[in-house]
Design goal:
single chain; 457 residues; alpha/beta; 8-stranded parallel β-barrel; 16 strands; binds 6-O-phosphono-beta-D-glucopyranose
Amino acid sequence: MSKRVLLGAALSASQCEGAYLEDGKGLSICDTVPSKNRDFNKLYGAPTHDFHYPTHTAVDFYHQYLDDIKYMKDCGIDCLRFSIAWSRIFSTDNMNQPNKKGIDFYTKVIDALIESGIEPIVTISHLEVPYYLVSEYGGWENKEMIQHYIAYSKYLINHFKGKVKYWITFNEINMAMHFPGVLGVRIDTSTNIEKTKLQSVHNILVANARTIKYAKEVDPNCQIGAMIAYSPIYPYTCDPEDIYKAMSVERETLFISDVLVRGKYPSYLLPKIKELNIDINEDESNDLHNVVDFLALSYYSSNAISVKEADEQSSGNLFGGIKNPYVSATEWGWQIDPKGFRYSLNVLYDRYQLPLMIVENGIGAIDKLENEQVNDDYRIKFLSEHIEQMNYAIADGVDILAYTMWSFLDQVSASSGQMSKRYGLVYCDVDDEGKGTFKRYPKKSFYWYQNYLKNRK
Ligand code: BG6
């Protein structure tokens, strides 16, 4: 292997920071979603005392970041992929008034990472759209959102020029097609949900492309990408109907990466754009030609799909499918498929011939803290098998820039709101009600990763 892949870990602002209204931060949509009976397609009102909202305290990274970065240094990670909370920077819809305390916090985080020899990989928007943009503007279906996002991304790019080399404009854009609410795509007031979703994705893609254009002008040395959640869709049988269905479902993700990488909509999407009368003007089409330097992706599981009904279903971060008898699954029914990881990396690299950055890969599990230790052998198995398959993919010729496992710390689960669905290398003592000491305990997987990083060739 000639080129060294950056190996690290990931976090996301709303899932780890807490301090949800501290130092001038505004409300974000995820701050309004309670821990129980979560419905991402509904716009909740402002938080009330009747519910627990897991992002309000999360795992307190906002106050403990310096100690957490010490753990990162001790672990030996090359890079940290994390996100900036948009609502901490622009807490009101005044695009000329960034929150100084918000930017100061991220400056301190980035400086501490750099001093610790850890490369920051920064996601600009990760499931954390300011609440006012959804309640007042209706979210991403409204083109006003593009301007707001660009004011925000430009501000970050200017501010961190020379410090941040790797940017990711958006987390998992294809989530808009499956869990639109988490991305700030409002469907509860929509009269045509398919149109709302596709128009919103288009507006996000325009915001992405214009940010890339700007970043390249201001800081030609930066590398900027955008992200999809990737889960290969296997046809459940060799019935041609199943094969075709699998291809069609996969295209619901690939049309987005096609635009990100190729700068235009693929031919298979054009009939849908016409049918739904999606508003795409000439300037926007031209701007889409500003393409990513790398494609970022998450990989948690594979899915199997059929045109026929099945007895047993599987789950996943995007959607579920039919339970695949050849692979195991997590306690939440996400199918564990390391070989599918090698397969996915090959599929995406064959399609795009562009470096890939794997920015999430991990297992959500119920961990037990006993005598201040967590023996998470299942996590070690998951990570070691996936890293092994990634190494095979590299030997297959796939160009990989970085791999950041999910996640460095335990964090609030994005889908379930649980703390008990843990992904971290470091246990955080917080429960599903937000109670606990908030103390950190490196798990067995932390020491396994530390050893792997130290001894890699
Ligand atoms: C990804 C998201 O889809 O899946 C993360 O980008 C999320 O934010 C991760 O945490 C795991 O999903 P969950 O719902 O188990 O937290």
